[in-house]
Amino acid sequence: MRAVIVGEMAMRGWITLIAALGAASAASASEPTNLARAPSDMSGAEIDAYNEGRSANDPEYIRCRRIAEPGSLVKKSRICNTNAQWRVITDRGNQDARDSMEMLARGWSNSVEPKDSLMTEIKPK
Questions:
Q1: pTM for the model
Q2: pLDDT digit string (tens) for 32-87?
């Protein structure tokens, strides 16, 4: 039972790491033009001032999430992005999951051996 729990924790750590890396790459890819700094580098007061007068559904509205650090039960990172950036991150993650499931369905390989190149059965003499 303990091995299963440790395995699940390791998997969550990897998922968190991948999400954080995806957030960083998506943030750089779709950075709004009117921000002086990356949203994750802004203080809470700066984010509140930026969001003032914006609807929570506005694509430029900044939202922050706390994501657990891999290997730690307590430490969390604050990741902030605009709604549009979070949408890109979510869409990319969903596409990656679909691609992974398709690869598993194909059996980890998309190559097909030609029938004539397969080894014939070896019989003892």
A1: 0.57
A2: 456 788 999 999 999 999 999 999 999 999 999 999 999 998 999 999 999 999 99
